[in-house]
Amino acid sequence: MAQITVSDLALGYDGQVLIEGLNFTIESGDYLCIVGENGSGKTTLMKTLLHLQEPLSGEIRFGDDLRASEIGYLPQQTVVQKDFPASVREIVLSGCQGRSGLRPFYRREEKALAEENMKKMGVMDLTERCYRELSGGQQQRVLLARALCATRKVLLLDEPVSGLDPKATSEMYRLIEKLHNEGVTIIMISHDVTAAIRYATHILHIGRKVFYGEKDMYLQSEAGRVFLLEHEEEVQHDR
Known about the structure:
Blueprint: E1 2-13, E2 16-27, E3 31-36, H1 42-49, E4 57-62, E5 71-74, H2 79-82, H3 88-93, H4 97-100, H5 108-120, H6 136-148, E6 154-158, H7 166-181, E7 185-189, H8 193-199, E8 202-206, E9 211-214, H9 215-220, H10 222-230, H11 232-238
Parallel strand pairs: 3-7, 3-8, 5-6, 6-7
Antiparallel strand pairs: 1-2, 1-4, 8-9
């Protein structure tokens, strides 16, 4: 069932168009990787899907009883965010804010959900630790647990392995793949071409050329061939 349908979408800032004529559909259980050149509008698309930014034109429709507030989001971290002085438990629980609304406290079931997701992400032993004292890989697992508190349907991940060492990168991809195998729809921006080829079911390439389709079709497309040629050394290293 289609969870998100994008029709003739145009994105940009202050009337300046970054991309237009964008059309694609995300089905329940898809693993979509969004790739393309820097500045092509990938993060802008993420923010538009979350209703954090309005499109210049076009339409986004949600199906499968999905609402924008039910989409879990793992953004790229700023330096200030990495230094946030809160406990792991507080960070993860904050993912339940969409459920609690204006209520100034968390219910028992919300605390149980946060604990469940901390266990799932392997950070239960860090619950009382200060977030800013954690390694980059640990912080990303905490943020993934937080995002899971908002949804069991769709996760939007903006460069989730940026700045991580190889071991932490491998662990993060393993956790994301596990969530996908459990039925969570994954939408991930990535500069990691090898990860897109390895894990994605579908590719959305935006830039000078636009492509949307299954991974195998992307590998045969002009947009895919050109992009992969530019990253050939990275792809060959992974094979």
